[in-house]
């Protein structure tokens, strides 16, 4: 028997990969073995350990903590995992499963796995037909445009209101990360979780008015 990890976000499967290394580092920075690219994940967030057929996880003093089946675990201490357990790191869910040993593709054995680049990990990224941007409509930055070239872009004054804009395979999605002031899209309060953006959507965040636009890629 062997173990595999099923990685999901917002109920969408992003990746399935075997757990074969003695240590698997999880975090936002590029040196990790499993890269989870979003602001709520610490640069060095957690580590999975595989020894004598037993899997344990350790929170590496992350900012937002690590959860097993919804329960926050203490940092710098290894916690045992069983088949079917779900680990929460930011908005990602990492499920541990036991399976029959089999031959995995070279792609699955890659030493570093970047998650949230594409919705379907088995597909190659399609040619991008449109790129998103945010244009500021008021204040001292009125007219300024930010092209959304990264997988995740955060916008807003810390402590007042911060949103993330995530580029997935099919579209761009917005999520409210922090701040007590409500975020609205076209005058409607932004719901919890991620919301798909449409070109022309107007966003209001902590006194900042902006519009999301999709523009065809030149060439």
TrEMBL record:
InterPro entries: Cell_Proc_Reg/RNA_Proc, FHA_dom, SMAD_FHA_dom_sf
FHA domain: residues covered: 24-73
Pfam families xrefs: FHA
Record-linked PANTHER family: NUCLEAR INHIBITOR OF PROTEIN PHOSPHATASE-1
Name used for this protein in its record: FHA domain-containing protein
Organism: Lampropedia aestuarii
